[in-house]
Every structure is written in structure tokens, then in C-alpha cells.
Design goal:
2 domains; alpha/beta; 6 strands; DNA polymerase, domain 1; 6-stranded parallel β-sheet; 219 residues; homodimer; Rossmann fold
Chain lengths: 219, 219
């Protein structure tokens, strides 16, 4: 494999714990936290794929809100601004996983970037909330290319902005399908296997599978 | 609205009942029928969208098998050919919904077509199994364009093959996201609302919402 000249991280589920949203959901809708969070997340991803295929891009803030509205309707829950707004705000203050900061420290000296579905404003907010300003060479949003992962234009954005060849980039994602998209594009890929989910059966494998980003530096 | 010159039907979940697969799943994996069917169907759709976005098309038979393998792995179920093959075969003998045949009868005189993610062989098989040979002017598979719904190329295929303008086609699907894709393309669209699911929040609405295809002719 080519020498690694940059690390590119997915944000949601990789550096930041999306399931911290669950606590907020449970507060607003007692007894429905897990179910709402799961539905919301699934629908959010679906909408990124569907809108990309239909050629009807809307940004991730809009899609996230639309998905929440759908999820609330499915469960028969109110979705007036009083309920919706505090849940949306949870996305602006997602906590990093406990191992994220130390993992980033271990990579000092090699450029690091974020490449995410999130809007620039959403990403700035979580990075600031984590106290990580200045930590990344680039914070890249699909909003620049108006199509979502795993479309190759998204991964190309990172290669272009970093000025590094695809095969010299190590892309790190906890989302198996994102890892498959990045590998298809030509990155070296590390699937951060934070859960017990099987490998996606998409005909392509990540180069590495690790349980914590603390192991990124080891290979 | 323009006069309707052709009806184009989605197959799975619209004319044919995908959940008849559930009984077979329950036979092969007692106690896991519903869970396996749901996971399988979700993953099957995911893989159509993901592979379309990645530009790595495989036909629906392959994707359906891959999704089943993933679903079995998730639930810790065996997925050797002894288990997998009978479940895959269920897709070749899906039952039509009880109201499908009468609905098609009610439209005699107007060309009808199927436009489906299924492979030509899968579609031929279910049409034959239903005793519907000769009933459709066209049985169209996305396999001709190597990308899945809701990509506009799929809907264009129907307009081109039927030789009818998009706005003169009434497209009928029970899948809200498919209805959104077809409406985006330019068809008149009827969402066949067989379940209690909310309307997809995708910024576009079907022209009609009906609970049974028997109501197609009424407008």
C-alpha cells in the first residue's frame, strides 16, 4: 500500500456519537427514545440516498429535519417546533466518542480532515463543541458538491482539497457503506467497527477493520 | 392533467405481496420470520441505492441474495445454500395481492406495463406464476439501464419503451419513495397506500393516494 499522507474522517458515528441524540429524544418523548432515534437515523440516511439519486439535493440540516418529521409521524408523535427544535439542536452539540481526541492526538504530524454529509454550519458547531478548532486541515461538507455519500464526487472532493492522491489517503468511517464507497473511489479504507454489525455485502472490503481509532497508528 | 395513455406499475409491494416471503422465512428460521423479512427488505433497498450511487450495479437477484446474507449474519442465522436457496425461490413465486387482478381487468383498453427493480427472469417468473402472461404490453426491468429506482433513467426507460409522453403515463407504486422519484421525473403518480406509513417527506407529492388499485379507474 502507498504511504499515508492524510487521514480523512467521517463525522457522524465515527468521531461523534450520534446516539447521544437518543437521550434528548427520550427526554422529549419518554418511552420512545430508542425507537425514534433508530427510525430518524434510518430515514435520514435513506433521504440522502434517495435525493441524490433523484437529483433533488437539499442540505443535511433540511434532510435531518424532514426525517425527524417522518419518524414522528410514523410513531404518532407530535412534531411541532416545541418538540422538533430541541431534537435538531442535539445535532449541533453531539459528543465526540471518548477515544476520538486521543486518536487524533496520535496522528499529529499527518494532515487530518473531516468529510461529512453534514452542512458546514453543523460541522463547525460539533467541532467547536469538542474544542477541536484548528485540529483539522479541512472540514469538508458534501454541500460543496450537492450530492451525498457514497457518490464518488464526495470522495473526490477530499482528494482535490487535500491535494493528495486517493491511494495516499486513509479514510476512516464507522459506516460500512461509507467505507465501501470510499474504497470503490480509490482511498485506503479503515472501517471503524464500533458496533457488532456484519461487514456490508457490497462486493468490496475495507483494507483494515479496527474497533477503536486508537489503533489507527498501529499498522 | 393530461389524459392517461398508459399505466405503469411497480411490481414488489404494489402488484405482488413481498411479505409472502415472511412465511417462508418463518418456516426456515422459526421465530425469526418477521425480523428477518424486515431486515432483508430494508437491506435489499439500501443496496440498490448504494450500488447505484457508487456506480457498482449488480442485478436484483444478486443484491437480494447479498441482502439476505447480511440479514442472516445480523441475526446470527446460518446462511448456507440449504437455508438461502428456498428463501430466494420465494421471490420467484410471490403472490399477487388479492385486488391486483381485478384492478388490471378494470384498465383493459389502456396499455399497462411493469417497471421494476427485479431482473427480467424474476419478473417473468412472478407474472407467469400469477397467470398474467400477455397482460402487460411491456415488462421492464432496471437491468436495461443498470441503475435502480429512483434514478430518472429508470422512469425514462418506461416512457421510451411505451412511446408515450411522461405526463401521459400514470405510474402506480406502493413505495412512497418510488412515487416521489416518478413524480420528479414527470409522470402522473398514484401512491398506492397499502400500509399506514406516512407520506415521505421528500418535497414532492403524488397526484393521487388510493388504498386499493381497484380505485385507479375512478378519477
Amino acid at each position: 500500500m502507498a504511504q499515508i499522507k492524510a487521514y480523512v474522517f467521517d463525522a457522524y458515528g465515527t468521531l461523534f456519537d450520534v446516539h447521544s441524540v437518543q437521550y434528548r429524544c427520550e427526554e422529549v418523548f419518554p418511552g420512545h427514545g430508542i425507537q425514534l432515534t433508530t427510525l430518524w437515523r434510518n430515514k435520514q440516511l435513506q433521504y440522502t440516498w434517495l435525493r441524490s439519486l433523484m437529483g433533488r439535493y437539499e442540505d443535511f440540516w433540511t434532510i435531518t429535519r424532514d426525517a425527524l418529521e417522518y419518524a414522528c409521524q410514523t410513531l404518532g408523535l407530535d412534531h411541532r417546533p416545541e418538540q422538533i427544535d430541541p431534537l435538531m439542536e442535539a445535532y449541533l452539540t453531539l459528543s465526540p466518542f471518548p477515544d476520538s481526541a486521543e486518536a487524533l492526538d496520535s496522528l499529529v504530524g499527518t494532515p487530518c480532515a473531516i468529510l461529512s454529509n453534514g452542512t458546514p454550519a453543523m460541522l463547525r458547531s460539533v467541532v467547536k463543541n469538542a474544542g477541536w478548532e484548528g485540529r483539522f486541515q479541512h472540514i469538508l461538507s458534501v454541500d460543496a458538491v450537492k450530492v451525498y455519500k457514497p457518490h464518488p464526487s464526495v470522495y473526490q472532493l477530499a482528494a482535490s482539497e487535500l491535494g493528495v492522491k486517493a491511494q495516499e489517503i486513509m479514510f476512516v468511517s464507522s459506516n460500512g457503506w461509507d467505507a465501501a464507497g470510499a474504497k470503490t473511489f480509490g482511498f485506503q479504507v479503515c472501517w471503524l467497527h464500533r458496533t457488532t454489525e456484519p461487514v456490508e455485502v457490497l462486493g468490496i472490503q475495507p483494507d483494515r477493520i479496527i474497533k477503536t481509532p486508537l489503533h489507527l497508528k498501529e499498522a
